Amino acid sequence: MAGLSQDELRLTLAGEATGNSQRDALIQFSRLLVSTSGTVEASAVEAVRAAGYSDRQLLEIALAITAITFTNLVNRINDTTVDFPKVV
């Protein structure tokens, strides 16, 4: 539903380069946000900005991660059936 091919989705989920530098910067930054704690290194913020993301978009990225995390927690509590097709 995001407009990615199966191959692009597989690479994205694996954390591998997709060949799209802006998308790859987004993926790397997002993975950094969810896998670390504390202040994000200035170099990481500068790298995602250099890829074309604005300060507003950086906050929107954080908001999207927050919403997804919240939804995942609620789904765990409710034992929600996941209806997305499996990525192969």
Describe the structure in your own words:
The protein is mainly α and 88 residues long. The protein has one domain. Helix content is 65%, strand content 0%. The protein is built from 4 helices and no strands. The protein has helices at 6-14, 21-35, 42-50, 55-78. α2 (21-35) packs antiparallel against α3. The longest helix has 24 residues, at 55-78. The protein is globular and about 40 Å long. The two termini are 15 Å apart. The model has no long low-confidence stretch (mean pLDDT 90). It comes from Aquamicrobium terrae. InterPro entries: AhpD-like. This is Alkylhydroperoxidase family enzyme.
Output the helix-strand order. HHHH
The residue fraction in helices comes out at 55-70%
Q: How many helices does DSSP assign?
A: 4
Q: What assembly state would you assign to the polypeptide chains in this entry?
A: single chain
Strand content: under 5%
Protein name: Alkylhydroperoxidase family enzyme
InterPro entries: AhpD-like (IPR029032)
